[in-house]
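Hey, I'm writing a tutorial for new members on how sequence and structure tokens pair up, and I'd like a real worked example in the thread rather than a made-up one. If someone can provide the structure for the chain below, I'll link this post from the tutorial.
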Amino acid sequence: MPGNQLRFEDGAAYERMMGVWSRLVGEVFLDWVAPPPGLRWLDVGCGSGAFSELVSGRCAAAEIQGLDPSEAQLAYARSRPVGKIAQFHQGDALKLPFPDNRFDAAAMALVIFFVPDPAKAVGEMARVVVPGGIVAAYAWDRPGSPGGGVPTEPIQAELRAMGFAPPIPPSADAARIDALRALWTGAGIEAVETREIAVTRSFADFDEFWTTTASGASIAPFVAALSADLTEALKARVRARLPATGAGHITYAAHANAIKGRLPK
């Protein structure tokens, strides 16, 4: 089976699967953070630009800078409408290429569990934000968490039941509420608040759900490596797990943990 290294190199595929989920959570997240207009934003781990586009459309940002290690993802982000407003850079969350006190707000959208050293990444966000500025994030709860945090949980849960170990992010535990709070307070961030954000997505039928979800970068290589018989067995188990409505629609929920705080003035 494939190793546990997760790569996100196809911006369009990421957008079809995770970009939609990210926007569903991001809408609620930005309402909760309630930033004032006119801020200078940094989107750490911007990926396909889904969150940057939300910030552009909802926050009247004075500036948006995005950072991601994947040039393919950045190319997709630059092709979006937000690409005319934001600047997207290739870089590392553990060594942000910006000076101290550069931004009014820094956010990580569905990123912190992929960072090998979450504490260092949060410290870097705090470094580049002005005193009194916002540092915030949201991340899918750990795979296997009660209620099924990640959008791929219907497939992952049945893989685990079949005796497989699907890949998980390298810092999956960082997405727990208590872990997020410890990271933020450890970086000297104050007025820290946390919450869970639950969202629901619907698909026209099981085939649309399967095509979309099984193609997600976090699970596609693993599913693709299964034999035809195992794939059909997996699909049957997932289909039974997600009964369709009378119209054939598949609807289910995922949830993320969110955190926000401010730098001391």
